[in-house]
Amino acid sequence: MPALASWPGLARFLGSLRGTPAPRPRRRSRFTIPPELASEIRGSLDRWGALWSLPGLAEGVTVQFSSRFRSSLGSCSPRSGAIRISTAILQFAPEILEEVLCHEAAHAAVAQLHPGRVRPHGREWAELMRAAGYEPRVRFPIRLPRHP
Ligand SMILES: [Zn+2]
Questions:
Q1: Is 86 within a domain?
Q2: For 17-29, what is each residue's pLDDT tens digit?
Q3: Distance 8 CA to ligand 1 centre (A)
Q4: Can you tell me the distance from the alpha carbon of 68 to that of 77, in angstroms, rounded to the nearest whole number?
Q5: Is residue 16 in some structural domain?
Q6: What is the distance in A from the centroid of ligand 1 to the CA of 36?
């Protein structure tokens, strides 16, 4: 198992959600990242940037949460560095969020390290995932709730 950073801010945030009814996802609502979670995300991006010899990685990407995903957990536009993560992920363990974030950040990193055409989940991407301590995988063994 990879060594996972602990995200106490996320754990506290998830704890604060327990007992409160889940807000109905609104179509155009934009999820605001709690400040503690934002700083943990930033910390992870800094760590991977150092690992991948891309110290500017954190400045080169934006991370947004969205309730509009249907079947995937996240996406990345490698050229713009725009990472979007499904809010559905917040009901799972923080490790899943961290791995999905790493997965998407690695796409952005590959675009910077290997400009030109490389396969999205090819060797270059897989190498970055392994360097971060993850077995590269594209599917996650979790079930997303069905949308009405
Ligand atoms: Zn991917």
A1: yes
A2: 555 555 555 455 5
A3: 26
A4: 16
A5: no
A6: 26
- Is residue 60 scored above 60 in pLDDT? yes
Asked if residue 24 lies in contact with residue 57, where contact means CB atoms within 8 angstroms, the answer is no
Give the CA angle between residues 110, 115, 120 to the nearest 5°. 45
Rounded CA separation 136/134 (Å): 6
CA of 120 to the centre of ligand 1 (A): 6
CB 106 within 8 A of CB 45: no
Give dist(CA 92, CA 79) in Å, integer: 29
Residue that wins the pLDDT comparison between 114 and 20: 114
**Within a domain: 142:** no
Residue count (the chain): 148
CATH number, residue 86: 3.30.2010.10
